[in-house]
Amino acid sequence: MSSLSTKKIDYKTLLILLLQIAGSSLACILYYFDYLSVATSILLGIVSMNLSFTPWHEASHKNLSTNSTINSFVGILSSLFSIYPAYFSKKREHLIHHKFAGDEQFDPVYPRIQTNFWLFLPNLIFRILSRKEKIQYNGLKLRKKEIFLDTIHYTLILCFLAISIYYQFFSALLYGLLIPRIFVFILHAIYICYFPHSKSDGGFIISKTPSTNLILFYLTLGQSAHGIHHENPNIAWHSLLAVAKKRGRSNE
Length: 252
Description:
mainly alpha
């Protein structure tokens, strides 16, 4: 089991961040210089963008480093390259989800999954567009510095998109970052939000039986063992499979 009680930096998670940034950058740059087709650029972007949840998520739980500055820096950087701004707001929402998992009033995930699989995405999009995603819990408030950094984060992304349009490289961002962002948003919503917590008869499951399938584990970077993460958020993502296998043997 790998928590960070004795480690200063989780280099496996740091590697995921570097692969995310390198892959997304290459998807844009190689398309811009005509080395990649539209389809290949989008595919490389999707593979890279699929890595984007893990760095900021591990940083949110202080699993990346015992140093809060390093955690914040990695969280911001990962969010910036995944066009998913406002790291501190996301972190707050996620920690509230853990604090009130399954609570009808305060868990932000609970209302999103009160539907069947086919209506989950329409319901989620409707909630976002109708601004029903407001968090009801007033605790874990952001500090002024965090609000400022989130604002800067949004501003940087908007400025970069405006520059890309002006200097005519927006298409590279569209195929290498933006379309992959939309695709992976849907993918992550399904396998990080819906599948780990949904019940066929409604309600909420905090800790589903984890899968020990090796391919599924690495495709989702540990989210196939999401239930164990809820039981102990300070277990690093790459150690969840070992815990799941050990639990499976003990239940035999």
